[in-house]
Amino acid sequence: MIKEWLDTGSYTAYFNMNRETETVETKKSDFEEVKKLNQPSTKKDPILNEQILLEKKKFKQTISEIDNEMNRLGWTVEDGKNYLSQNYGVTRRRSLSKNQLAEFLQYLKQL
Q1: pLDDT tens digits, 5-37
Q2: Could you tell me the superkingdom of the organism this chain comes from (predicted)?
């Protein structure tokens, strides 16, 4: 259970391990720094920004094609989830890699 940010800019997380409760306090600024490090700086690199936009566009296009194929086949969302679970161990298309997503689309097109 994690408490929401307090006015002081920190929060307290409670971890229950081996029936003992340990309290850890962390400053909000610590998490903001990690968050910044994990995000690419697109302002400084316009080529990276363009690549990210192209990847997002390709992903949306592939998802749209999958939707169309599922409709053509009469598959429900549940049918899609079952297939993904059995073949990839996930239930969401967003959890697939680019190659797995393309493979799933190709499978649907072949049916």
Answers
A1: 333 444 444 444 444 444 444 445 555 655 565
A2: Bacteria
